[in-house]
Amino acid sequence: MQRTRQEAIDGLLPEQREQLILTRLRAEGRVLASALAAELQTSEHTVRRHLRDLADQGLCKRVYGGALLASPADKPAAVRMGEAVDRKARLALAAVSIVRPKQIVLLDAGSTNVAIAAALPDHADLTVITNSPEACARLLNRPGITVILIGGRIATGAAGSVGATALLQVQQIRADLCFLGACALDPDEGVAAFDAEDAELKRAMIKASGQIAIALTSEKLMTAAPFSVAPATAVDHLFVEDDVPAARLAKLKAVCDNVEVARS
Q1: What is the pTM of this model?
Q2: Which fold would CATH assign to domain 77-262?
Q3: How far is CA 101 from each of CA 199, 207, 230, rounded to the nearest angstrom?
Q4: Is 77-262 the same fold as 5-70?
Q5: In whole angstroms, what is the distance from residue 240 CA to residue 185 CA?
Q6: Contact 87, 111 (CB under 8 A)
Q7: What range(s) does the HTH deoR-type domain occupy (predicted)?
């Protein structure tokens, strides 16, 4: 005789409950302890214990009322540079559509932003200021692009300059547009990074720029990272991939001024 869904839930072992929670996190990005407790017919205390165990494994980040999926962007920069190259190139082509001639563009470090550097138009009389040596290399000797490289200590994870020197230089900039790197973005939790100095520099970049744009691969959406950068409402232009579910896209459009889908 086939068991009912409720009987199946009642018979779950603790490790099976934890796996179900992880599956839900991967599907939805965010879970609420109260809703899980009701669904699993268990206490919120038990659900929070499962979330704590998942967080200890680096699989999620606990937030008020529940948890967010942990961003997968905590990888060495050399690894990230070789991942999803074609997808990042499509995002870059969409992102550079907002660039106008004679602008001062502040370009943060990050593999997607390196793709944006390569996609910037020639002969547009642009000044591009970047803390990314990789992005700088893509821009050298390009006609109509003046490049300024921000100095400082190169952070291994971010593959860009961070620290006091970089921070001071960014604070002296007044840019028209900033392409900000983001390790994670959630409509409620905002933009986040994995490194404290990197997060501090990103906050300075936001303050130094007239408009903020982020181009983000889908796996970073509705995820969390340890250091907060800014609320999602600070993002003027968000570029996402065409596989983002409609419900998730609606949540992003509710907090970001302009959300554009990069089509294949």
Answers
A1: 0.86
A2: Rossmann fold (3.40.50)
A3: 29, 22, 28
A4: no
A5: 11
A6: no
A7: 14-69
Which among 219, 158, 217, 224 has a CA at the least distance from the CA of 191?
A: 224
Please choose, from the candidates 124, 105, 104, 125, the residue with its C-alpha nearest in 3D space to the C-alpha of residue 116. Answer: 105
pLDDT at 113: 97
Residue 104: band (very low, low, confident or very high) from pLDDT cuts 50, 70, 90? very high
- HEC assignment per residue over the chain: CCCCHHHHHHCCCHHHHHHHHHHHHHHHCEEEHHHHHHHHCCCHHHHHHHHHHHHHCCCEEEECCEEEEECCCCCCHHHHHCCCHHHHHHHHHHHHHHCCCCCEEEECCCHHHHHHHHHCCCCCCEEEEECCHHHHHHHCCCCCEEEEECCCEEECCCCEEECHHHHHHHHCCCEEEEECCCCEEECCCEEEECCHHHHHHHHHHHHCEEEEEEECCHHHECEECCEEEECHHHCCEEEEECCCCHHHHHHHHHHCCEEEEECC
Higher pLDDT, 1 or 199: 199
The one-letter amino acid at 128: V
DSSP β-bridge partners for residue 215: 239
> What's the rounded mean pLDDT across residues 127-142?
96
Residue 201 φ then ψ, to 5°? -65, -40
Two tokens, residue 214: 């982020």
Average pLDDT, rounded, for the chain: 90
pLDDT attached to residue 96: 98
Percentage above 70 pLDDT, the chain = 95
Q: Identify the residue with better confidence: 239 or 73.
A: 239
Structure token digits, residue 107: 């370009």
CATH of region 5-70: 1.10.10.10
Which residue ranges make up each domain of the chain? 5-70, 77-262
Which residue reads 């007239």 in tokens?
210
